[in-house]
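Below: protein 1.
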Amino acid sequence: MSNSEKQESILNLNTLILQTILSILIVIGIVFGLAFFFREELLGYSTIFIKIFGYFGLFFGMVLSDSLPAFIPPDAFLMLAVSGGMSPMITIVSMSLGSILGGSLAYWIGLRLIPRFHLGRKLVLHYEDKLLPYIRKYGFWAVVISALTPIPYSWMAYTVGTFKMPFHLFLFGSLFRILRMSVYFFAMYLGWISGV
């Protein structure tokens, strides 16, 4: 790797770190605003969600969220958990396991199903331009980066499945979803209690 490639790689990584920090600050700000202006409404929705679905709802919501892109973003489930006063540890564990299972389903869809269908190949090619450089440049670390940053984890799962990354590497990189869920949970919690 040449000097200019190393500098570009460091610049890209620094940009991702900055985007991640910025997204965390935005999440805190949004949650603060929601807690300040719509606290009663959120408490009502979260109470209903918790009574009907509980922790299993968080788990299953994350499975859907990270196996079907364009479903509900993971942060919506975190918001329900935070505003509903759910246990941080159980929330983080159930959502992390659901996210990893959802990502694993997306990986297997990318590996087995997408290559068989024209529309599937077309979708992967659309996102390939954005994600493939990360996969080529960072390999396994591309999964870690997508697990931690605003890069869409489910699309990365589809893509690395399609390009046949070994599953054990994908799974190991996906474990970093636990860290992301933890950081975002407590960032939202900070925004929620600040909005009182």
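Below: protein 2.
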Amino acid sequence: MRRAHGRTATTRIALISAATAAVLGLGGLQAGSAAAEGRTPADRTAAAGAATEATAGHKALSSFTVAFPAAPYRTHNIARAVELINGAVVQPGEIWSFNQAVGERTEENGFVDGIMINDGRYVKSPGGGVSAVATTMFNAMFFAGLKPVEYGAHSFYIERYPEGREATVAWGTLDLRWQNDSGHPVTVRASSTGTSVTVTLLGTKKYDEIKATKGPRTHITPPGKLTATGPTCEAQTPLEGFDVSVDRVFLQGGHEVGRETFRTHYTPRDEVTCVPESPTATPGATAPAGSGASATPVAPGTPAAPTSPTTPATPTASGTQGAPASPAATSAAPFPNLG
């Protein structure tokens, strides 16, 4: 079994299918402090002091930026999520959780409705866009050499994200979590603009360099074609499904000292055309004869059974539907995905 500086190449991953719909997209504006709602000025001052002390003398372990097309809901929701994670200090051995840091994506928590993926289709749901922050954090964690604990990819591939290196979240069901196994405190710095979001992790470097190498797409599956009616219909462009592997390569003194493989499975993104609803038509979706596609693409599907944390032979982002997953075998199974 391959090891990364004494750590087994397999990282424990808990990938959980969700019955909860999750929102698709990215976004952001300049974000202010990391203080969550309800924290007093004294709390914020103490948190800022702790962050300053923790990062004194520390350098950037990694910094990653994701760009996205501007949209008002993305701008708002990403700015809110960035505000809630910025300034967090993760002590050695501690686990950072996206859902714990950001909280439920509700109006009361400062989020607005956006677009999500549910049962392989775009639909509206609160918190649309926050997966841009999850994907950016995932890549910052990846290139910092920290240990992934739980994450999952979108069900189908979204072109603006790196293939095999992206993450989605769903409140109460799918989280993005990583453990600080660097031996030193790690501080989160997050910011956003109208078209990008950046996450920088500060700490003490364990490796000289970390690279990503991506393999070719395999097991390519063509998308279907669907037509749909009704107010819930969202048009959707087609994209093939495929599998892809990404290696995380650890370098020290110019030499490779470890390698981890992350495998991801993406389902096809069916083409969806929204047509006017006739007076006698029943809202829903119809599939053309011979397309092999579902006749009800807008209705939520039944998610896969939850999986429990496991320590398989390789790292993954999301598990095969109904089966345990590892950090090397990411499956973007068709459960609802956020952002």
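Residues 24 and 339 are 3 Å apart (CA to CA).
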